[in-house]
Every structure is written in structure tokens, then in C-alpha cells.
Amino acid sequence: MMRDTMRTWIPAVLAAAVLAGCSSPSGGGTDADPGAVKNGDSAPAKAAESAPAKKGGSLGAAGTACELPVTFDVAADWKPQAVDVEPGSDLAALGQQGSATMVCEIDAKPAGNIGYLRVWQGEGPSTAPRAALEDFVAGDENATRASYKETEAGSVPAVEVTYTVEAELLDERKTERAFAVATPKGPVVVHLGGLDSTEHKEMLPAYELAKSTLKVD
User: Fold this and answer.
1) What's the CA gap between 30 and 95, in Å, rounded?
2) How far apart are CA 211 and CA 75, in angstroms?
3) Residue 58: which pLDDT band, with cuts at 50, 70 and 90?
4) Percent helix, percent strand, percent coil in the chain, to nearest 5
5) How wide is the angle at C-alpha 21 spanned by C-alphas 17 and 26, nearest 5°?
6) What's the pLDDT score for residue 15?
């Protein structure tokens, strides 16, 4: 009962906070955010596999909700929107993690989950994916148990990290993950959080769809 109640009001409270600091065509939102890594900690357990996500459209090209240095498919019913972080606002830090800036978020609530797939733009076209990802994770001081691995996003070389953070309002730890790729406009980080580890696991097919279909423009 307590967890169900928290699921109802936490996203509304935190979404209101982001709206105060980030402007976008239709507003913003946040789930419990990621954090910094303590290298050497053990990796979190792998999530059970789920059925592949159904494609709902593509994102990143000119004319889509978020114009990005990459393109990828978005799961059905997930709602993407561009994020414009307002420098100097009281809550601008919510749109900045390490040296990366949030540029797009894809809301899972229309599909029945509490969480977001977020796209962050890093700095420096010569920045390697591993360096960009380590910098991103280090931007949150609550992350532990980080495990990095080399992988591919579509056919593009990528680095992926899985880690846990403290979901303070739920008094439990939760799993988060992200992958990074290099682009001519600088590294791009795609991150999946969630209200808790259950929500995260249920949203993994959408994350995997984005990763498997990613292309660099």
C-alpha cells in the first residue's frame, strides 16, 4: 500500500520541480535521479529478460520531437519531448550531470510505467564513450556498484554501465543504467532510471530497443 501511494505522488512532486528549472515544448519530469560511482564495488544483479518492445516511432532526425546527433526507435506509447535547460535557474542542476546536459526525455507513463529514457549531450567531439560515461555517472554522488562494459548500440561502438542508487523516498536501492556513443557533435549518453528497480526492469525493453536501433548521423 505504501509503495503504491508513493508511486502516485512522487512523480508529480518531482515533475513539478523539473518544470520550474527546465523548459520544453510540453514540460519536463524526473524520477529518482542517478549518481556517482565508487569503482570496485560489485555490479548489481542482471535483470530478467522481457519481451521486446513494440516500436512506436523514431527519434532524433529533423522534424521529430528531439533533434539529436543520433537516431533510434522509441517504444510504443512512450512520449518524447525536447528539454531546454535554462542556465542559472534554481533547478538547472537537474538538467546537468557531470559535463552532460539533458536534451531529451521520453516519458514512460503513457505506456504504464513510472520513469524516463533520457538523452544527454556531452562535451568534446574527441571524448571517448567510456570517458563520457564515467563523467556522467560521477556527476551523481549516490551511485554505487558500477559495472562498465564495451558493447554496441546498433552497429556503433558503445560503452554501457549498470549501477545502483538510493531511492531515498522509498528507502531502498534501485538499478539504473546508461550507454554512451561518440558522435561528431560530442558524446551522447542514453540513460534509463525509474521509480524503483521493478519499474526499471519493466522498462528495459524500451531501453534495449533504443540501443539496438541507434545510428549516428
Assistant:
1) 10
2) 11
3) very high
4) 25, 35, 40
5) 85
6) 39
Q: What is the pLDDT of residues 128-168, one digit of tens each?
A: 999 999 999 999 988 989 999 999 999 999 999 999 998 76
Spell out the residues 6+ positions from residue 62 whose beta carbon is closer than 8 angstroms to its own. Answer: none
pLDDT of the residue at 71? 98
Residue whose cell numbers read 549516490? 142
* Cβ pair 148, 136 in contact under 8 A: no
Strand 172-181 and strand 116-121: pairing?
Answer: unpaired
| pLDDT the model gives residue 49 | 55
Contacts of 28 (CB under 8 A, 6+ apart): 15, 18, 19, 22, 81, 83, 105
Residues 138 and 36 sit within 8 Å (Cβ to Cβ) = yes
Task: Report all structural domains of the chain as residue ranges with CATH numbers, in order of start.
Answer: 2-216 (3.40.1000.10)
Residue that is written with C-alpha cell 524516463 in the block: 116
pTM: 0.78
Asked whether 196 and 167 are in contact (CB, 8 A), the reply is yes
For 48, residues 6+ apart whose C-beta sits below 8 A from its C-beta are 201
pLDDT class of 91 with cuts at 50, 70, 90: confident
Residue (of 45, 49, 15) closest to 29 by Cα position: 15
CA distance readout (Å), 97 to 33, 82, 85: 10, 17, 12
